[in-house]
């Protein structure tokens, strides 16, 4: 029910100081940054943006390879594999001009998503989503942290507004992003004495830009869930209930922003600003307000407004 786990990394992107927050960003020169999950979505847009190329938000590593830029290297990496992670660390160390100076930035962007209520979601799905979104983030960070620490650089973790608030039918995704939030906070406390800054980017609804879901994919996930449900659950809920959930999910996906630039600007600022923010909230006003209400007001109030 989830996308493949493959991610693409871009260890030698040169940051030359883009200016989404012009008054706060200083020129930092040429530094190496590793980005995971660059075959599509935010990672792909970020890689192309750093190369000052047109941003389409779709396609994969082949197009990036075809640019034949001296400032970029690509390699295929499964963030769920410790063996591939070790090879990636060795490859990056050999690619850096001066490994003793370390790696300036790591952007943990690789991720997958699915939907389904708790009774509809298999344990295999819970484990699969967590293996990429949570354990993949932790595994990648631990592997490259010595190089980041050597450079006194940046770790930028891509979380979600779903890492700050729960949502019906999204438990498998929410728990991984809540975990990324906790991991990032703990890492930030530990790394401050080391001179490493840790930032969280919490995008709102950008499904329209990331291609995480299409109507065909939503139906495929739902059909797979239905077939795997215990007979008791199927009888208790009924097929009409599932069809209603499919309609709700399609409506949610259609409401997503097709423009990734707020997220890309946030990541760029986190990598280049001398004083990056702890958290970035690239989202439209509706979702920003909803996050504030869900996280600051009593649950009895926020639940009544948004859930029931």
From TrEMBL:
Q: Which Gene3D superfamilies match?
A: NAD(P)-binding Rossmann-like Domain
Q: Which organism is it from?
A: Pelodiscus sinensis
Q: What's the name of its gene?
A: BDH1
Question: What keyword terms does UniProt attach to this protein?
Answer: Allosteric enzyme, Lipid metabolism, Membrane, Mitochondrion, Mitochondrion inner membrane, NAD, Oxidoreductase, Transit peptide
Q: Which top-level enzyme class is recorded in the Swiss-Prot or TrEMBL entry?
A: oxidoreductase
Where is the protein localized? Mitochondrion inner membrane; Mitochondrion matrix
| Classification via PANTHER family | D-BETA-HYDROXYBUTYRATE DEHYDROGENASE, MITOCHONDRIAL (PTHR43313:SF25), SHORT-CHAIN DEHYDROGENASE/REDUCTASE FAMILY 9C (PTHR43313)
The alphabetized list of GO BP terms reads: steroid metabolic process
Give the UniProt family note: Belongs to the short-chain dehydrogenases/reductases (SDR) family.
**Keyword Mitochondrion part of the UniProt annotation:** yes
Assembly:
Homotetramer.
Please list the GO terms describing molecular function: 3-hydroxybutyrate dehydrogenase activity
Describe the reaction catalysed, as an equation: (R)-3-hydroxybutanoate + NAD(+) = acetoacetate + NADH + H(+)
Q: Return the protein name.
A: D-beta-hydroxybutyrate dehydrogenase, mitochondrial
Task: Tell me its EC number(s), please.
Answer: 1.1.1.30
Please give the InterPro entries that the UniProt record associates with this protein. Answer: NAD(P)-bd_dom_sf (IPR036291), Sc_DH/Rdtase_CS (IPR020904), SDR_fam (IPR002347)
Instruction: Give the main location.
Output: mitochondrion
GO cellular-component terms in the record?
mitochondrial inner membrane; mitochondrial matrix
